Amino acid sequence: MPTSNRTTPLDRADFWSPSTEQGQRILRLYHLYRLSVGLALVLLVTSNMHRELLDMADPQLFRIGSWAYLATNVVLGVLLQQTNRPLQLFGLALFDVSLLSALFYAAGGIPSGLAPLLVISVAIANSILRGRLGLLIAALASSGLIYLTFYLSLSRSAATAQYVQAGALGTLCFAAALIIQALGRRLQQSETLARRHAADVADLQALNALILQRMRTGILVLDPQLRVLLANPSSQTLLGQSQLATQRLDAHCPALLERLQQWQENPALRPQSLQAFAEGPVLQPSFVPLRRKGERDILVFLEDVSQIAQQAQQLKLASLGRLTAGIAHEIRNPLGAISHAAQLLQEAEDLSAPDRRLTQIILDHSRRMNLVVENVLQLSRRRQAEPQLLDLRYWLHRFAGELRETQRGDSAVNLQCVSGSIQTRMDPQQLTQILTNLVQNGLRHSARKHGKGQVWLHLFRDSATQLPVLEISDDGDGIPADQLGNLFEPFFTTENKGTGLGLYISRELCESNRARLDHVPREGGACFRITFAHPKTAS
């Protein structure tokens, strides 16, 4: 047989969800109300005031019923404290209405004043029970009022005039049931809507928290005392701090506090960029006043402008490369003619020493100009990286051996590797170009200071990230602190014969292979560190 979708009267959907906090609260009030009524009735019969106040129809039944009502409600209050079973709730309401109806009859009917207790019990029962079960309780209560009034009229002629009041009270039972059920439905709809809104707000709050955590822009919230109330992970990274909350801003970054004070004095003035620590990125701060709970907080945004500057440099170099590619032919022909003429002039026998020196200057600068054109052309038409799985330990031994064969006898390339295989993914030709450039720079600076060039290659695995790391260090004069910020900028050089593109090209080649080239502060020379990608990382 096909199953029916109609719900039975005892279906849980017909109830007010007593398992919820609201339902349990109503159930506790229902127990408390019945205990209060039972205590009042017991006090009435123990003091014998019921004989004086009420025209009793059956005093003995009233006395026994009052004690039974109190005792039973005490037991039910303990046993059914947190019940959510429909049959138990319906039985509780049915017991309450039945016993109150018996007390109503024993007390003499309508004149006893116990009928409103039935109306109140019906109302409370309908706040727990919904639909047909609630109306059934109201029907039983109103039927009891009318039938017991009729039964009393058989033995008491005065009860004959009480049918209208009994009917009105019965109607009031139905009215109370319908009103309470309507209010209950509206309250339940409001609670459902409130829970839905609360869930939406919680989801939105979680989404906002996730966005704040994933944002590359640093965000700080400062109170009027300049204490950090909120800091996302990006702000901690940009400022080089592991913990920012609940501390004052000047303890973390005095330069940012100075920019904030300048903004407070003149909000229309754009704050200057800053660098939180020596090796940190260049940051552009911006400030926004924030009203929260009657206090004026400050919202701080920190933008990493080093990436923007790098993109601008790349665009500039791309444009320069296209320009150079277009005019390379026009430049190289005159440049070749100048260089060839200078070579012929240098071979003349009657050329004086000063003129020979001038000729050599022409040749040197011709070669330098040709090298600049070659480097810029290389940037403009640089091929895509073709990463391969490399065993760096084996590859470096081979690279160092080939390099030693091409170097002068007074140059030394020292290699130190950890035991075991260290793998990464990188284009071997581009790695050769990067290391050749870095090693040649190190040998040149070392030989300038000591007369003999020495370079150390140290291959190891980073203890924190487990990524392969190669350090190239020398014992030269090192790099002055005021030049570190421009170290990887194109065309920046401190040598007369340099082009300023070697370190820039090396970093670009590293980034195209998912590696990173950085300068590491070191006493007694310079040190450059290449952090390679994980061998399973796709380039």
Automatic annotation (TrEMBL):
PROSITE patterns for the chain: HIS_KIN
Range of residues in the leader sequence: none
Keywords carried by this UniProt record: Kinase, Membrane, Phosphoprotein, Transferase, Transmembrane, Transmembrane helix
EC number, as in UniProt: 2.7.13.3
UniProt keyword Membrane present: yes
Keyword check for Transmembrane: yes
Enzyme class: transferase
Every Histidine kinase domain range: 326-536
Catalytic activity: ATP + protein L-histidine = ADP + protein N-phospho-L-histidine
Transmembrane segments: 32-49, 61-80, 136-154, 160-180
Gene Ontology MF terms in the entry: phosphorelay sensor kinase activity
Gene3D superfamilies according to UniProt: 1.10.287.130, Histidine kinase-like ATPase, C-terminal domain, PAS domain
Protein name: histidine kinase
Species name: Geopseudomonas sagittaria
